[in-house]
Amino acid sequence: MLAVRRATLALVTVFLALPGCGGEFPRPAGEAARDTAAETPADPRVVVIRAAALRLEPDYAAPAIVDVPAGALLAVPSDEPAPDAAWVRVATWDDRRGWLPASDVVDAGLWAHYGAAFGGVSPILLRPAYPVEGGRWGVEAPFHSPGLTAASSVWLLGDSTSMARIARIDSIENVCGDDRHRFATTERIVAAVRWPFLDAGVIAAPSGSRPGARPLTVGRLDAEPALVDLAETVAAELAPAGAGPPGAVEWAALGEGAAWAAFSWPVEDVDTGQAQLAAAALFGRRPGGWNPAGTIPLTPSSAEIPTPAWRPISAYATDGAIRPTVLLLEALEYEGAHLDIWIERGGRYVRLYQGYYWGC
């Protein structure tokens, strides 16, 4: 147990020292890391998974106190409970207090768990990878991706986990626009000739120790009646106010013991291009039958029914269970798509990274 505690402390310390992580906010990384190691915090801690503004009140229209970078480690003052589950009250290292959307933070212990599962690197550095022009593997590498350089390697978590050397940092023009996407391209060659080939996507982790996250096979699923009934119950809980059953449901198997269902309700908005409101749910199989395992909340989408808003491309188990806790989802839109990384947090999946948009 002592060894586990030491390993966890070391892991968190590594995260805080990484570029883009909590050690950068708002003091030099080395100073923050020393203080974190020396402190024994009394309040719970959370990690910010998306750069956000700390608000004076729990309202997006409220004045911003300070911008918080992704990876920042913040305290949750126990003497100031949130008014509802949508916001969380946090405090910076110098006790500046404000509000962040609950969907933008993850418990620090859970964050360390995901980091350990992906080789001891900050989960913020995870990226989609897929075949790109010329038969190369491309790893999305937007600016401020310090884990991806021409001098490093990357783990590709496909059917089996393998390491590839990054040959160069390159950019590729979007399929129907003048904008360019920045990639780390690897020396590993793939047979696919489509460009880009999102369906072959996997999660890539910068070089660290060998990731322990276990890839799960994504495939077709003919849902049995008991699972369909359970999905109808969950869909009714996720549905837009006043809506009936979803207009379309798409199923997928995630490994041998988990199922995915994407729900679509027709809700059109000509001004925004919205064609549906979408949600999704995961189910895990236990000896007694199927059980809900997590949801993706209601989200607008421009995809036209019966096309779902999301389609699972890769799935990973990180806790020894058969259910997936990390998802690589293809976000489908009217004229394009992108690959996003989602992580499970307390029965709900939150988006960790939004990928390059391939479309017009």
Secondary-structure element series: HHEEEEEEEHEEEEEEEEHEEEEEEEEE
Q: Would you tell me the overall average pLDDT?
A: 86
Question: Into which percent range does the helicity of residues fall?
Answer: 10-25%
Radius of gyration: 21 Å
Overall structural class, as computed from helix and strand content, comes to mainly beta
Instruction: Let me know the largest β-sheet.
Output: 6 strands, antiparallel, barrel
Describe what is shown at a glance.
The chain has 360 residues and is mainly beta.
Present the secondary structure layout.
Layout: H1 2-17, H2 29-38, E1 45-48, E2 52-55, E3 64-68, E4 73-75, E5 87-91, E6 97-101, E7 105-107, H3 108-117, E8 127-132, E9 136-140, E10 153-157, E11 161-173, E12 180-189, E13 202-206, E14 214-216, E15 218-219, H4 225-238, E16 248-254, E17 258-269, E18 274-286, E19 289-301, E20 310-317, E21 326-333, E22 336-345, E23 348-354, E24 358-359
Antiparallel strand pairs: 1-4, 1-7, 2-3, 5-6, 8-9, 8-13, 9-12, 10-11, 10-13, 11-12, 14-20, 15-16, 16-17, 17-18, 18-19, 20-21, 21-22, 22-23, 22-24
Could you explain how this protein is built, in words?
The protein is mainly beta. Helix content is 14%, strand content 44%. It is built from four helices and 24 strands. The protein has helices at residues 2-17, 29-38, 108-117, 225-238, and strands spanning 45-48, 52-55, 64-68, 73-75, 87-91, 97-101, 105-107, 127-132, 136-140, 153-157, 161-173, 180-189, 202-206, 214-216, 218-219, 248-254, 258-269, 274-286, 289-301, 310-317, 326-333, 336-345, 348-354, 358-359. The strands form six sheets. A six-stranded antiparallel beta barrel has the order 8-9-12-11-10-13. Strands 14, 20, 21, 22, 23 and 24 form a six-stranded antiparallel beta sheet that branches. Strands 15-16-17-18-19 form a five-stranded antiparallel beta sheet, with helices on one face. A hairpin with a 2-residue loop joins strand 21 and strand 22. The longest helix has 16 residues, at 2-17.
